[in-house]
UniProtKB/TrEMBL annotation:
SUPFAM superfamilies: Thioredoxin-like. This is Glutaredoxin 2. Residues 43-123 form the GST N-terminal domain. It comes from Marinomonas spartinae. PROSITE patterns: GLUTAREDOXIN_2 (PS51354), GST_NTER (PS50404). PANTHER family: THIOREDOXIN FAMILY PROTEIN. It comes from the Bacteria. InterPro entries: Glutathione_S-Trfase_N, Thioredoxin-like_sf.
Length: 123
């Protein structure tokens, strides 16, 4: 039964990914130097995610629209990224944005909060 539920969940997840791909439109354009600055800043960011998670798709969509090349780290069962997420953030829940600044690390959960933060900082 669990297999069937996971299958349906993944199928829906991939349908949402496909819908996102065809409706996402254009990404934000910045002058090259400004985009380079943003990209450099984003080297301290990583998004822990599952490929077919709808909350992750929503977050990736916002990242795409804001033109934010943030490293994505898949965290399936048994992966080292899942272990990092558990040990660093305290729970396995995605999406989670890892933000490193001045030697400290923040683990931000909740897609809406992550998107709000990125929009405020990079829009
Ligand atoms: N309210 C959260 C929901 C996130 C959520 O439910 N994520 C699921 C995946 S779609 C999860 O991480 N579940 C834990 C697990 O599957 O181990 C958000 O908007 O980010």
């Amino acid at each position: 039964m669990k297999i069937v539920i996971n299958l349906i969940r993944n199928l829906l997840g991939y349908i949402i990914i496909a819908l996102d791909l065809v409706t996402r439109g254009a990404k934000k354009k910045r002058p090259p130097e400004q985009q380079q600055e943003v990209s450099d800043e984003l080297k301290h960011f990583a998004l822990y995610q599952f490929a077919a998670c709808p909350f992750c798709t929503k977050t990736r969509r916002a990242m795409y629209k804001l033109n934010l090349p943030i490293e994505k780290r898949n965290a399936p069962e048994g992966s080292k990224h899942r272990q990092e997420l558990l040990e660093g953030g305290g729970k396995v829940k995605v999406p989670c944005l890892r933000i490193e600044k001045e030697g400290t690390v923040e683990w931000m959960y909740e897609s809406s909060e992550i998107i709000r933060y990125l929009e405020k900082r990079f829009a």
